[in-house]
Design the sequence.
């Protein structure tokens, strides 16, 4: 489902000739870094992109509070690792680019923060005040109530560096400041160290760099949707699922109430097509003219964003999460239709950080970290089985004894009155059910007796696999920084991204290196 599955010298040569002009890309990257201090490594990236044979490795993420989940940083480092690898292999300048998807309007998701509660579990809070639910993220400014919520949540960022992190939160999140500026502030030290440059999706929209793709989607009504649908059906015919829903138009239009989908209408009598945007009717020609003269009102949806990205950037590889790879596979025919060379999809790196406290608890439990990579119900059942293995007899061991006990009665019933055999069978089942019930009660009593062990296992589970998902998808970047500091987190992530992609790097901070598991 991808045109390219491995980066080659030929692909680098071809992609270097595509996209916007190198001087325009340099300006785009510089603007993306506005408000931050550009490091020497980032300055080198800005110089590199001006080279005729320069290409890009790109990955993106929407805005997240407190730096977003840890996987945001893992994705960024994965971009750097692949850029360095490709540059070393083919001798070409490769620039690591972070695409900040700040035109997204999902404020509820962007404002979520998971932090540790008093009982050790992870609790989700939102800082969004609930207003303007369709407003793009880059136009959002923090309200007073949002700042109060953020500073209150910041008190939950505790650890050796907790005080510095809480000061960072107070200085970064200010009334009237944009969500974009605060997000980039948190990521700035890591981008500086790794030479990462930024493309803000909002800049692409404001500069109209997406206009050619947008106009064609409007002009050739349904055609782009048909191309995506063709790939989606091909995926399904091969046993996969479609990750994203195919909309009639792949761009949204901003009106005074925020971003809105373009809703198609068709008159079967006149065979004419028209659309409406937030209830306002447009002919197709009016829609095309709006896209042509006011492209800044249009922004790509989830299935158009990769096309826009790779039409503008000379991308040879895109760093993606699993779900992102799934919806990128729906774009196979769309890339061909636009004549864009689809870059190689690469899975981002993944990590689970084991701090000293958790490492001690793991040692006491006698379990490896990966043993906890499942639901709490499965952990509890498995632990109960381990505890009761010798202490509680299995009900199954009673089955032969019951059969032996009832065997003479069954033989008598067969000789005297065969209709009574069913009664013997019913008694057998009832006795085995009673034994199973007794076994369950014994296990429950044993579990209560071993509540300290269960509490320890639950604490480890919340630290390692919170809410039945990978740690990196739950706790925000600043949660880790509060415990370990910026420099230590950077080193941890660098180590984790030294493990082959497709594995979870388990980084035990009480040891020197990492272990990779599937």
Sequence:
């Amino acid at each position: 489902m991808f045109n390219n599955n491995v980066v080659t010298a030929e692909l680098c040569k071809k992609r270097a000739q595509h996209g916007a002009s190198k001087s325009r890309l340099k300006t785009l990257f510089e603007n993306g870094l506005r408000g931050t201090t550009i490091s020497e490594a980032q300055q080198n990236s800005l110089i590199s992109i001006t080279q005729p044979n320069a290409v890009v490795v790109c990955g993106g993420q929407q805005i997240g509070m407190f730096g977003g989940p840890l996987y945001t940083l893992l994705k960024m480092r994965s971009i750097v690792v692949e850029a360095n690898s490709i540059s070393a292999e083919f001798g070409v300048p490769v620039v690591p680019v972070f695409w900040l998807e700040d035109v997204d309007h999902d404020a509820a998701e962007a404002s979520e923060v998971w932090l540790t509660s008093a009982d050790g579990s992870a609790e989700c809070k939102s800082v969004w005040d609930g207003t303007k639910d369709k407003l793009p993220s880059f136009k959002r400014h923090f309200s007073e109530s949002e700042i109060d919520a953020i500073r209150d949540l910041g008190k939950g960022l505790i650890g050796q560096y907790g005080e510095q992190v809480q000061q960072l939160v107070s200085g970064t999140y200010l009334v009237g400041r944009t969500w974009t500026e605060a997000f980039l502030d948190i990521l700035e030290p890591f981008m500086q160290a790794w030479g990462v440059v930024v493309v803000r999706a909002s800049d692409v929209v404001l500069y109209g760099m997406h206009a050619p793709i947008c106009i064609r989607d409007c002009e050739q009504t349904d055609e782009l949707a048909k191309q995506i649908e063709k790939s989606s059906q091909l995926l399904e015919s091969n046993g996969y699922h479609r990750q994203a829903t195919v909309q009639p138009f792949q761009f949204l239009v901003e009106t005074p109430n925020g971003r809105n989908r373009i809703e198609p209408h068709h008159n079967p009598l006149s065979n004419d097509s028209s659309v409406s945007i937030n209830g306002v009717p447009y002919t197709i020609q009016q829609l095309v003219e709006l896209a042509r003269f006011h492209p800044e009102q249009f922004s790509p949806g989830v299935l158009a964003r990769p096309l826009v990205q790779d039409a503008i950037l000379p991308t040879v590889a895109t760093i993606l999460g699993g779900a992102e790879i799934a919806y990128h596979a729906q774009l196979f025919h769309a890339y061909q239709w636009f004549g864009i060379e689809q870059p190689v999809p690469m899975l981002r790196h993944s990590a689970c950080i084991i701090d000293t406290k958790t490492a001690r608890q793991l040692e006491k439990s006698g379990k490896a970290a990966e043993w906890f990579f499942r639901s709490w119900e499965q952990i509890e059942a498995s632990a109960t089985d381990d505890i009761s293995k010798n202490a509680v007899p299995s009900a199954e061991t009673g089955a032969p004894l019951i059969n032996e006990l009832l065997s003479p009665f069954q033989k008598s019933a067969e000789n005297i009155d065969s209709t009574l055999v069913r009664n013997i069978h019913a008694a057998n089942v009832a006795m085995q059910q009673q034994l199973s019930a007794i076994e369950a009660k014994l296990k429950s009593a044993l579990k209560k007796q071993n509540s300290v062990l269960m509490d320890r296992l639950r604490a480890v589970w919340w630290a390692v696999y919170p809410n039945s998902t990978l740690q990196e998808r739950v706790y925000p970047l600043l949660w880790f920084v509060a415990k370990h500091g910026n420099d230590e987190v950077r080193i941890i992530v660098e180590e984790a991204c030294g493990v082959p992609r497709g594995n979870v790097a388990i980084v035990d901070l009480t040891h020197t290196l990492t272990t990779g598991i599937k």
